[in-house]
């Protein structure tokens, strides 16, 4: 195998440089003389995450596709702490990114299975108030390009950055209760009817009325005038209200030549 450097990171005081090589080794170098000081052994796959501690110049974090997360003392060339991202029933999850908190007491990682892992000192009680599965409903919505090659949301025909704040949903797309929807920036002061209740009622093919999560309520999409789901209908309604407010603001704004090109919008 021809050695290739995959990542480079300076430590906090710039006295050391750490390189990740595709043979799974980390190498610690003296930044002034270029001398190789240590080989750090532990990873079993390529490393694409190297993060220095925000104030302790001895500490460096590494993580890779093998699911391993190491805290190193690069001055001694030793392992301080090791975590392995094992996911029950699915093997290990490759770690894609890690960041330290500003106070250096915590660090957070994201993996290939969509998990956010938070490590640190203290207890996990503050995190128990939030659901285990949290996604924005727009995370996997299809995008299209218009005639000017601008990216638009397929459902609303709107530029993604101009859309209303997204809803929080679980892994199946079911919206969370209103108390969680208020955690989304921009939804803190929304009316309750704009935050989607968790449950609704739907009639089955046998005529029986059952309670069901709103995000799972569907209708025959071949019937004209019907929305694919109540969630989609509410999204369209919020988008329409936002477009009406924008149009009203533009009518009240002073007219004059506009410089620069903006993102085209469709009704």
Automatic annotation (TrEMBL):
Listed GO biological process terms: cytoskeleton organization; regulation of cell shape; regulation of transcription by RNA polymerase II
Record InterPro entries: Bromo_WD_repeat, WD40/YVTN_repeat-like_dom_sf, WD40_repeat_CS, WD40_repeat_dom_sf, WD40_rpt
Keywords: Repeat, WD repeat
Gene3D superfamilies xrefs: YVTN repeat-like/Quinoprotein amine dehydrogenase
GO CC aspect terms: nucleus
Pfam families: WD40
Keyword Repeat: yes
Biased composition (Polar residues): 249-261
Domain of life: Eukaryota
SUPFAM superfamilies assigned to the protein according to its UniProt record, in alphabetical order: WD40 repeat-like
Annotated region described as Disordered, given as residue ranges: 238-267
Keyword Transcription carried by entry: no
UniProt WD repeat ranges: 1-39, 40-82
Protein name according to UniProt: BRWD1 protein
Protein species of origin: Peucedramus taeniatus (Olive warbler)
């Amino acid at each position: 195998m021809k050695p290739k450097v995959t990542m480079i990171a300076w430590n906090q005081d710039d006295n050391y440089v750490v390189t990740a090589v595709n043979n799974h080794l980390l190498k610690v170098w003296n930044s002034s003389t270029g001398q190789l000081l240590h080989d750090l052994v532990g990873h079993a796959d390529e490393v694409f995450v190297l993060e220095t501690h925000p104030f302790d110049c001895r500490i460096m974090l590494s993580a890779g596709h093998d699911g391993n997360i190491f805290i190193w003392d690069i001055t001694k060339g030793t392992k301080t702490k090791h975590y392995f991202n094992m996911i029950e029933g699915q093997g290990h999850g490759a770690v894609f990114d890690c960041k330290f908190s500003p106070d250096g007491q915590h660090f957070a990682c994201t993996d290939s299975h969509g998990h956010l892992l938070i490590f640190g000192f203290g207890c996990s009680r503050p995190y128990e108030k939030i659901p285990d599965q949290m996604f924005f409903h727009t995370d996997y919505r299809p995008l299209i390009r218009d005639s000017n090659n601008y990216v638009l949301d397929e459902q609303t025909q709107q530029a993604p950055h101009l859309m209303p704040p997204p809803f929080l949903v679980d892994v199946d797309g079911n919206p969370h209760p209103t108390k969680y929807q208020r955690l989304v920036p921009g939804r803190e002061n929304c009316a309750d009817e704009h935050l989607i209740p968790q449950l609704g009622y739907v009639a089955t093919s046998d005529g029986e009325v059952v309670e069901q999560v709103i995000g799972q309520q569907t209708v025959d999409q071949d019937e004209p005038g019907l929305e694919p789901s109540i969630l989609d209908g509410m999204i369209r309604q919020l988008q329409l209200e936002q477009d009406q407010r924008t149009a009203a603001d533009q009518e009240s704004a002073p007219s004059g030549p506009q410089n620069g090109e903006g993102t085209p919008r469709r009704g």
